Amino acid sequence: FVIPDFQGFCKQMEEIYNKCYTNHSGKPAEYIPQLARFDSKSWGMAICTVDGQRFSLGDVDVPFTIQSCSKPLTYAIGLAVNGCDYMHNYVGMEPSGRYFNELVLDYSNKPHNPMINSGAIMTAAIIKPELSAADRFDYMFKVYKRLAGEEYLGFNNSVFLSERECADRNFALAYFMRENKCFPQNHKLHESLDFYFQLCSLEITAESGAVMAATLANGGLNPLTGDPVLTVDAVRNTLTLMHSCGMYNYSGQFAFHVGLPAKSGVSGCVLLVIPNTMGICLWSPPLDANGNSCRGVQFCMEMVSRFNFHNFDNL
Ligand code: GLN
Known about the structure:
Shape: globular
Structural class: alpha+beta
CATH superfamily: DD-peptidase/beta-lactamase superfamily
Helix content: 40-55%
Bound molecules: glutamine
CATH architecture: 3-Layer(aba) Sandwich
Largest sheet: 5 strands, antiparallel
Strand content: 5-15%
């Protein structure tokens, strides 16, 4: 086994889980009522190792929307569909140093990277644009489901409708990119935005999210089903950008302190990848000033203080 003393490991994870439970800081996102309604007490942690061992605690079967945690998955699928060179004609690979939804492009007039809104709208826009909206959604749903090893994946229509209703900034980003000729020819702006909102509105649970993270940890091969969902190259690029850009404006500090690829979303989820070892999904709605789950970040910090999972721990 990749974690030889799995029981001892789980015991420590449980201590960290309990410690984080007493953290009452932050508050849930409020930009749409569907997110504001979530219970601040919700706290789930699920682990799936690359050899298929599972451990979970708390609210791990409660569906929540994936939100920005869809960004790395969509990017990875885009790499698989379009290849790396094509993708990066349209989106950069540099941290923006700005807010995740800021109206700004890089020096070559591309969105800075696929982990911020402009970049994720772009990634969505260039995945199978030749398909009808319905077929495109079906295609993505199926690939996401394979990432989750056929475990829970849903779609929250009220979140989708709210997202679209309260999306002035995302519309502004898309128009700004169109003004700057960022998109390929014949691009359909409203279809791309809808597709982006739909991907944010996919539902996972901490359990199924952990399997998704574990698939990334395992180089794209789902550890439970053996399904080769993504190529190793696509996963390598995705983990690289999660490492440098995955935690909003805390990404640099997170890379410094935790040293692992991760992505957070406004619903309070964190997908954390320990390459070649395990995937972890953390979910707790209260967010800090950077927009990251308070308990989620605390959990990651505590974990690397106990285990040598930091990228540069084994020197
Ligand atoms: N749906 C949200 C948006 O586009 C997702 C943002 C997030 O999770 N940070 O604004």
